[in-house]
Design brief:
Order of helices and strands: HEEEEEEEHH
Bound molecules: nickel (II) ion
Number of helices: 3
Structural class: alpha+beta
Strand content: 15-25%
Low-confidence stretches: none
Largest sheet: 5 strands, antiparallel
Shape: globular
Distance between the termini: 27 Å
Strand order of the largest sheet: 1-2-3-6-7
Length: 178
């Protein structure tokens, strides 16, 4: 199975709105499996389909250290959020090397479908609650840096664009040597 390329902020495709999944077939299962493999390899604890340029409401999460607690959420909805908030130092595979505090509800209840199209509900707290909300934001075209001040966001954008240019240059150089 190939690892899927992950879009990097500020790629405008990260701001597309994902559509609900309507077909629960073998292709969907394969996509979820490829996303999980890509997430583990990165390594990361969550990945939204948006990040691999597939604009469907599908996210994979595994916050365990054993990598044995893969959770797949399709067409997820938050049906309850606590008034209590928590600030968590977030990072994102689409914003490599950047971590910053984001305030979100400390606990959430989510309703979603599994890969078979079967509905389930889950109440989450701690890192899992953060992760669900972070990945669901991706499906709405929102990246966590949008919670930060415009000044910080611009700094991050400039830094990542510079890195992207350097990556491209290195890639071109290695191609011309061959
Ligand atoms: Ni992310």
């Amino acid at each position: 199975m190939p690892l899927l390329p992950i879009l990097r902020y500020p790629d405008p495709r990260l701001h597309k709105i994902a559509k609900p999944v309507t077909i629960f077939d073998a292709r969907l299962k394969q996509l979820a499996a490829d996303m999980a493999e890509t997430m583990y390899a990165a390594p990361g604890v969550g990945l939204a389909a948006t990040q691999i340029d597939v604009h469907q409401q599908l996210i994979v999460i595994d916050t365990s250290e054993s990598h044995k607690e893969l959770r797949i959420f399709i067409n997820p909805e938050i049906i309850w959020a606590s008034e209590e908030k928590q600030v968590y130092e977030e990072g994102c595979l689409s914003v490599p090397g950047i971590y910053d505090g984001v305030e979100r509800p400390a606990r959430v209840k989510v309703r979603a479908l599994d890969v078979e199209g079967k509905p389930f509900e889950l109440e989450a707290d701690g890192l899992l609650a953060v992760c669900i909300q972070h990945e669901m934001d991706h499906l709405k075209g929102k990246v966590f840096v949008e919670y930060l001040s415009p000044l910080k966001r611009n700094r991050i954008k400039t830094k990542l664009q510079k890195e992207e240019r350097e990556l491209m240059r290195d890639r071109q150089r290695s191609t011309s040597v061959r």
